[in-house]
Amino acid sequence: MTHEDFKVKVPGERTIMSPLKPSFHPEGMSFGFIENHDRVLLDASLENFQLCQENGEISISFEKAGPHKHLYFEASETKVAIVTCGGLCSGLNNVIRSVVNELHYRYNVNKVIGIQYGYEGFISKYNHPEIDLTPQRVESIHPFGGTILGSSRGLQDVGEIIDTLITLDVNILFCIGGDGTLRGAHANH
What is the pTM of this model? Predict the structure, then answer.
């Protein structure tokens, strides 16, 4: 495993200005934009740092999460889908609620849909309808366990998932779950 294994492939240049505005306080900036070169170390120990220096290696790191100054899509014209997959755990509804509210109130995204029952929800033969996710719809879901979208496990046809995303005109897909969910998302990218 090397530093190169953790570089994120990007679909091109971000050209749309973010609607977010950094906020400043007397002590300094409380929120700022992430730069493409910002990284988070996998192993932040002094021992690992010294070993990498001695060997002339770059420490393994991940792309830092957070808001970028430029985006790929015009937020107000973007359609977002959210799917929850795999086993149930506490906090899934909190994540759904947070994503919907952040998209609506901070980015001005007007259309967020929920895909029911995991990746199965993209497969037409199951006939699971999408759910409109608005701030009002998710306002009180956080005290409840599980996920309002439902979940499922198992392999689904990647081509059909992609076809459904295209048919639904989805620009961004948030996949919420564990390692299996993210392996599935990786297969779909």
Answer: 0.83
